Amino acid sequence: MEKMNKPAKERKRKIGPMLGALIMAAALAGCGNEAAVTSEESASKEESASKEESVSKEESVSNQKEGASAFTYLEPVMIEDYYGDMAKYEVYAPKDSSYTDGQLFYNGHGLTYSAYISDYSQTGVPIQEWLEYVVHLDTDMWEEQPSEYMDVKIEDIVESGEDFYQIASTKLKDVFGIPFEVKHLYYMNMKKDGLCVQWHLELNESCADSETDLIIDELAQCYEFQPQEIKTDGSWAAASEERIRGEKEKDSLPETVLWFNATYAPLTQSNKSFGTNWKLVGGMEVSDYNADFCRQTLERDWEITDAASALETVESLKEKGHREKFRQCMEELEKREILDVDEQTFADTVHGLIEAGEIEDNAFRYVIVYFLHQDGLDADCIAAWDLCRVNQLYADFYICGYMTYEEAMDASLENSLILQGMYSSWEEMVNSYMLGYQFWKGDPVLTEDSPTKKRYQCYLELLELEDGPYTLDWNMDLGKSW
Question: What percent of the chain shows pLDDT beyond 70?
Answer without folding.
Answer: 84
